[in-house]
Design a protein that fits this description.
The chain has one domain (5-92, 131-249). Helix 1 (5-12) packs across helix 2, helix 1 (5-12) runs antiparallel to helix 8 and helix 2 packs across helix 8. It is built from 13 helices and no strands. By secondary structure, the chain is mainly α. The radius of gyration is 20 Å and the shape is globular.
Amino acid sequence: MLNFQSKIIKGAEQDAWISVLLVGISIHLIIWLLYFLLKKSNNGDIMSLHQQIFGRWLGNILNIFFYGYMLLIVASIIRSYLSVLITWVFPNTPIWFLSLTMIFVISYLVVGGFRVITGICFWGMLIPSLLLLTVYFPLQYAYWTNLLPVFNHSLSDYLVSAKESIFMYSGPEFLLIYFPFIKNNQNSQKWAHISQMYTTILYLVVTIISFVYFSHGQLEHVTWPTLMMSKIIRFPFIERFEYIFIFLWL
C-alpha cells in the first residue's frame, strides 16, 4: 500500500484508479470460483481436491507447485516489508538480521495455531485502518483537476495499470489452505466478499488521494508516495509521524 501508486500510473496515468477499481471487482469472481472448487473437495482444501481429481502422484506434484507459489507470495510480502524498514527506519541494520527476526516472529505465530493467526489478522486489519484518519492532511493540498480528463486512455493502457494492480490484491488464494479451519465455513463466503470490498475501497481511496496530492510527474519519481504524504502530518508532541505510520502498517 506504500508504493503501488508509482507503478500503476505508468499505464493509464490519472485514469489508473479505474483499473484499481475494476481489478478489485474482478477478484469477487475469483473468490466465487474458489468457494465453488472448495465445496467440491472432500476435505475442503485444494490439496485433497488435487488428489481427488488427478490421483495421488499428479495431485502431489500439483500440491508442490501450489506450495511453491504460496512461498513466492510470502517471500514477496516479506521483501516489501524489509525494503521499507531498511530504507526508512533501520538503514544501518544488516538485512539478514531483519530477515531472521521477521521469520522468527512469523514462525512463532504459526506455531501458536490457527486461532492465534486469526487474532493477529483481525488486529492487523483493524489497527492499520486507523491510518485512514490521516487522509485529512493530504486532502488539504489536493488538486482535483489532476484526475482530469477521465476515460482518456486506450484499453491497453488500462490493462497495463491493471497488471500492476494485481499483486496488491493477493490473498484470497490462501482460502484454498485455511478453508477447513473456518467455523461454519459454508456460510463464510459473504464475509470473504465483504473483506474484498473493504480492500478495494481502501486501495481506491489511497489511489485517488495520491493522484490529487501528487502530480503525474512527481508520482513517476516518488518511490514511496504513501509515506511521503505521511511526512506532512505534524503534531506538537510527535516529530516523525511516518515512523508511527510504518509500524502501524506493519
